[in-house]
Every structure is written in C-alpha cells, then in structure tokens.
Amino acid sequence: MDGQNSPYFWNEIEPVAVPHILIVESDPGIAEVIQDVIKYEMRKHIMHTTTVHDALRVTKALKPLLFIIDERLSDGDGFVLYDQLHQRAGFALIPAIILSTNQRAIQQKIMERDLICLDLPLDIDDLIQTITALLPHQFV
C-alpha cells in the first residue's frame, strides 16, 4: 500500500489511525463485496486482512472502530481472534460482526460473547444497517 491510499499514516512518534473498519475475511469475493459496500455506500475507511496472524499484527499499530470477522479463517478460528483482540487494552468495547454460513451451528459462541452475526451470503441492506448501528455515533 502506498502512503496516499493507506488508511493510516505514520508520524515519527507512533502510528496515527484514521478511523477505519477492520475486515478479517479470507475469501476474496466476500471481502471485495464488503469493502465495496463500506467504501462506496458508507464512505468509510477499510483495512482488510485475510488471516488471524495479520489481524493481530495490524492491530498492534491500529485501533479500528469495528471488526468484521469471518468465523472460519485460513489460519484459525474467528472467535479465537475476537477473544484475543478484545483482551487487548482499549479494545474491549470495540464492536464486532461475525460472518457465518451456518449461524445455527455457532449460536452458543455468539450468545456467550453477545455478538451480532450476519449470514453468508450477505444481504447488503442488513450489512449497512448493522454497521451503522454498531459504529460510534460520531462516525456514522
């Protein structure tokens, strides 16, 4: 990513984040749909990673407004990633959306964490409404 298209920039002291939404999705088609909706319909900045490892690395420098996490990632479980992110200082109140092809099978995990789950394939209107409801009021 070049500096002009990057959702963040670095100053000499520490990284400075432009408010953004972190998408953690390994399927390129699904990720593209989500990115297009957020970027063009909602006019929000996006950071996209495809793995648990990359999401953990990126969030060392950036604090997103919202997480959108697939329950199944190529290198791990989306719920484990969610748990790890929410244990970090300052991350406990960041809302998250879990994406799933079988919400019924993961209902217990969703309820234990008080998460919102959206079914795949995504309904675009549901995605926009859910993101709008979860974003901090000053960023809607």
Highest-level CATH class: Alpha Beta
CATH-scheme architecture: 3-Layer(aba) Sandwich
| Average of the residue pLDDT scores | 88
Task: State the helical fraction.
Answer: 25-40%
What is the percentage of strand-forming residues? 15-25%
Uncertain parts: 1-16
What structural class do you assign from the helix and strand content?
A: alpha/beta
Short description:
This protein is α/β, with parallel strands linked by helices and 140 residues long. It has helices spanning 28-41, 52-58, 78-86, 107-113, 124-134; strands at 8-10, 15-17, 20-24, 45-49, 66-70, 72-73, 76-77, 96-100, 116-119. The protein has one domain (34-135): 3-Layer(aba) Sandwich (Rossmann fold).
Overview of this protein structure:
This protein is α/β, with parallel strands linked by helices. It has one domain (34-135): Rossmann fold, CATH 3.40.50.2300. Helices cover 34% and strands 24% of the residues. It has helices at 28-41, 52-58, 78-86, 107-113, 124-134; strands spanning 8-10, 15-17, 20-24, 45-49, 66-70, 72-73, 76-77, 96-100, 116-119. Strands 4-3-5-8-9 form a 5-stranded parallel beta sheet, with helices on both faces. Strands 1-2 form a two-stranded antiparallel sheet. It has a two-stranded antiparallel ribbon with strand order 6-7. The longest helix has 14 residues, at 28-41. The protein is globular, with a radius of gyration of 14 Å. The two termini are 26 Å apart.
What are the defining features of this structure?
single chain, 140 residues, alpha/beta, Rossmann fold, 9 strands, 34% helix, 24% strand, disordered N terminus
